[in-house]
Write a structure and sequence with these properties.
Organism: Abeliophyllum distichum
Transmembrane segments: 12-36
Shape: rod-shaped
CATH topology of the largest domain: Immunoglobulin-like
Pfam families: LEA_2 (PF03168)
Membrane topology: Single-pass membrane protein
Strand content: over 45%
Domain Late embryogenesis abundant protein LEA-2 subgroup: 70-163
Helix content: 10-25%
Bound molecules: 2-acetamido-2-deoxy-beta-D-glucopyranose
Distance between the termini: 47 Å
CATH architecture of the largest domain: Sandwich
Length: 189
């Protein structure tokens, strides 16, 4: 603009333009390596509640229904899309129950909560060598784990595959009918 006629002007104009383009390229590069760089979304377990508990002594039946709420925070200037997943409950390292988590997309710098209900039918755990001691102590410990696999995308070209998970140590108090949870979140780069 304004540098059409004078040859010297054209030269200056080209130099200035080149400098501007170079500066812009540096800015874009720096941004894509810093704030625009896809970051790891974080999931954390907000609450674990005992929704329902039923115990029948004979024949032995114990239904422990847990409500789990996890929140997913997407720190990116782009969306985070995660795949179908599963929340698992284990008892002393053995799978005890699971519940599906449906795929979804979290918008840029958004967060949302996922609620799932996991029904642990304890009957099948009675074969565990630890079971009766734990049960008669009135407190049974479980572990819950929720893992999300997905993709964080900033613009169309900055993409990153991510895996993020949250685990909780749960103590279910059968007589008192409550659950105490201690949760940890981890990210995997
Ligand atoms: C366990 O309890 C939940 C919640 O009331 C119920 O939906 C589920 O059908 C029960 N399962 C069994 C096997 O009793
Ligand atoms: C995810 O789960 C939903 C419902 O459970 C199903 O309709 C969909 O096809 C699944 N998507 C993938 C990619 O497996
Ligand atoms: C269950 O977990 C609680 C808290 O972590 C712990 O104090 C307790 O000893 C555990 N009980 C068993 C039977 O492992």
């Amino acid at each position: 603009m304004g540098c059409i006629q004078i040859p010297r002007g054209i030269k200056i104009c080209l130099i200035v333009t080149a400098i501007l383009i170079a500066a812009l390229a540096v800015v874009v590069l720096v941004l894509s390596l810093t704030i625009l760089k896809p970051k790891q979304p974080k999931i954390s377990t907000k609450s674990v509640t005992l929704e329902y508990i039923k115990w029948v002594p004979f024949p032995f039946h114990l239904n422990v229904t847990l409500g789990i709420v996890v929140s997913v925070d997407n720190p990116n200037y782009g969306s985070f899309k995660y795949d179908n997943s599963t929340a698992y409950i284990t008892y002393r390292g053995v799978a005890a129950a699971d519940a599906p988590i449906e795929h979804d997309t979290i918008p840029a710098r958004g967060s949302h909560e996922i609620s799932t209900t996991v029904v642990v039918i304890v009957d099948s755990l009675t074969s565990s060598p630890y079971f009766w001691a734990d049960f008669t102590s009135g407190c049974m410990n479980f572990t819950s784990s929720t893992t999300l696999h997905g993709k964080a995308t900033v613009f169309k070209f900055l993409k990153k595959k991510v895996t993020t998970y949250s685990t909780c140590d749960l103590s279910v108090y059968i007589q008192a009918q409550n659950v105490i949870s201690v949760c940890h979140s981890k990210v995997k780069y």
